[in-house]
Amino acid sequence: MAVGEFDLIRRYFQHPLAQAGARAGVRLGNGDDCALLQPAPGQVLAVSTDMLVQGRHFFPDVAPRALGHKALAVNLSDLAAMGARPLAFTLALALPQIDEAWVQEFATGLLELADAHGCALVGGDTCAGPLNLCLTVFGELPPEQALRRSAAQPGDELYVSGHLGQARLALEALRGRWPLPAAALQRCRQRLEWPQPRVALGLALRGQAHAAIDLSDGLLADLGHVLRASGVAAQMDVPALLASAAVGPELRALALLEPALALTCLLAGGDDYELLFTAPVAARAAVERAGQEAGVALSRIGRIVAMADAGPPCRLVDAQGRPYTLPPGVELAGFDHFA
């Protein structure tokens, strides 16, 4: 017997966390016309939506379990950047056909990450069509502690979490632009297909950081969003970045052979889903503790300065503050969904 829309939902997307009383803040989960969410007293809802389209955001042969994980991870990363605690999410899923084995694996990857972060699947929609995933995620936080893009201040130090550029390097290897040994490709592909949202870090930075953003489109592109929203500029210390924990072993090895490609991955890679944030100098010790509590390495890579009358919003400089000359061939444009 063919599986229909509602059978599909009942079999694979009935989430125990969405049942009444299973998750604080979820008054009514999926199965009705609307879900009912109620944040804790003194909290507001943080809401974000991300869409993943086959051929644009993922390869057709990606493992469905990895795709389920990433579909939720990129949304949770937005909550992390705001400093919000995950509460619930909805899923709109278009499928070319119902392949129950594929759906089972997809749902497993999706709901394993949901369970890990206490984020209840409370509704959505399914239909036939080209493979497309659209999730809306809801979190909660005290409004005065939100890590808004518009809150960076001159004098703030500029930080990134984790390693950057590995996802872009995996993409270049899968496209045949740069060969990687099997073990290195596996590590980089893990970062591309199984990103880990820095929710714990976002929560630990509340009250310490000023502004934050998650790195989805590339370091320089996403920093540009913060600078424009805050009306400030930045100086990025490229030697400090290259010497920091932000550069994993694959990028460090690549920098010796193809420095232009390594810097392209590092500065414009995209799909990192790490946090870029600013914090005052006085908070340096607290920021370091936040990284330790969250179990993620932090790298200090520059500072926020007042907006100049002319020149780029972000200046690439050396340790002495002089302009840094990039090698020929570095691509600095971030990811554009319509390019």
From TrEMBL:
<feature type="binding site">
    <location>
        <position position="149"/>
    </location>
    <ligand>
        <name>ATP</name>
    </ligand>
</feature>
<keyword id="KW-0418">Kinase</keyword>
<feature type="domain" description="PurM-like N-terminal">
    <location>
        <begin position="31"/>
        <end position="140"/>
    </location>
</feature>
<dbReference type="InterPro" id="IPR036676">
    <property type="entry name" value="PurM-like_C_sf"/>
</dbReference>
<feature type="binding site">
    <location>
        <position position="33"/>
    </location>
    <ligand>
        <name>Mg(2+) 3</name>
    </ligand>
</feature>
<feature type="binding site">
    <location>
        <position position="50"/>
    </location>
    <ligand>
        <name>Mg(2+) 1</name>
    </ligand>
</feature>
<feature type="binding site">
    <location>
        <position position="33"/>
    </location>
    <ligand>
        <name>Mg(2+) 4</name>
    </ligand>
</feature>
<feature type="binding site">
    <location>
        <position position="216"/>
    </location>
    <ligand>
        <name>ATP</name>
    </ligand>
</feature>
<dbReference type="Pfam" id="PF02769">
    <property type="entry name" value="AIRS_C"/>
</dbReference>
<dbReference type="InterPro" id="IPR016188">
    <property type="entry name" value="PurM-like_N"/>
</dbReference>
<dbReference type="GO" id="GO:0009228">
    <property type="term" value="P:thiamine biosynthetic process"/>
</dbReference>
<feature type="binding site">
    <location>
        <position position="78"/>
    </location>
    <ligand>
        <name>Mg(2+) 3</name>
    </ligand>
</feature>
<keyword id="KW-0547">Nucleotide-binding</keyword>
<protein>
    <recommendedName>
        <fullName>Thiamine-monophosphate kinase</fullName>
        <ecNumber>2.7.4.16</ecNumber>
    </recommendedName>
</protein>
<dbReference type="InterPro" id="IPR036921">
    <property type="entry name" value="PurM-like_N_sf"/>
</dbReference>
<dbReference type="InterPro" id="IPR010918">
    <property type="entry name" value="PurM-like_C_dom"/>
</dbReference>
<feature type="binding site">
    <location>
        <position position="214"/>
    </location>
    <ligand>
        <name>Mg(2+) 3</name>
    </ligand>
</feature>
<dbReference type="GO" id="GO:0009030">
    <property type="term" value="F:thiamine-phosphate kinase activity"/>
</dbReference>
<feature type="binding site">
    <location>
        <position position="125"/>
    </location>
    <ligand>
        <name>Mg(2+) 1</name>
    </ligand>
</feature>
<feature type="binding site">
    <location>
        <begin position="124"/>
        <end position="125"/>
    </location>
    <ligand>
        <name>ATP</name>
    </ligand>
</feature>
<keyword id="KW-0808">Transferase</keyword>
<feature type="binding site">
    <location>
        <position position="78"/>
    </location>
    <ligand>
        <name>Mg(2+) 2</name>
    </ligand>
</feature>
<keyword id="KW-0067">ATP-binding</keyword>
<feature type="binding site">
    <location>
        <position position="50"/>
    </location>
    <ligand>
        <name>Mg(2+) 2</name>
    </ligand>
</feature>
<dbReference type="Pfam" id="PF00586">
    <property type="entry name" value="AIRS"/>
</dbReference>
<feature type="domain" description="PurM-like C-terminal">
    <location>
        <begin position="153"/>
        <end position="306"/>
    </location>
</feature>
<keyword id="KW-0784">Thiamine biosynthesis</keyword>
<keyword id="KW-0479">Metal-binding</keyword>
<feature type="binding site">
    <location>
        <position position="49"/>
    </location>
    <ligand>
        <name>Mg(2+) 1</name>
    </ligand>
</feature>
<comment type="similarity">
    <text>Belongs to the thiamine-monophosphate kinase family.</text>
</comment>
<comment type="pathway">
    <text>Cofactor biosynthesis; thiamine diphosphate biosynthesis; thiamine diphosphate from thiamine phosphate: step 1/1.</text>
</comment>
<feature type="binding site">
    <location>
        <position position="57"/>
    </location>
    <ligand>
        <name>substrate</name>
    </ligand>
</feature>
<dbReference type="GO" id="GO:0009229">
    <property type="term" value="P:thiamine diphosphate biosynthetic process"/>
</dbReference>
<dbReference type="GO" id="GO:0000287">
    <property type="term" value="F:magnesium ion binding"/>
</dbReference>
<comment type="function">
    <text>Catalyzes the ATP-dependent phosphorylation of thiamine-monophosphate (TMP) to form thiamine-pyrophosphate (TPP), the active form of vitamin B1.</text>
</comment>
<feature type="binding site">
    <location>
        <position position="335"/>
    </location>
    <ligand>
        <name>substrate</name>
    </ligand>
</feature>
<dbReference type="InterPro" id="IPR006283">
    <property type="entry name" value="ThiL-like"/>
</dbReference>
<feature type="binding site">
    <location>
        <position position="217"/>
    </location>
    <ligand>
        <name>Mg(2+) 5</name>
    </ligand>
</feature>
<keyword id="KW-0460">Magnesium</keyword>
<feature type="binding site">
    <location>
        <position position="48"/>
    </location>
    <ligand>
        <name>Mg(2+) 4</name>
    </ligand>
</feature>
<dbReference type="GO" id="GO:0005524">
    <property type="term" value="F:ATP binding"/>
</dbReference>
<feature type="binding site">
    <location>
        <position position="78"/>
    </location>
    <ligand>
        <name>Mg(2+) 4</name>
    </ligand>
</feature>
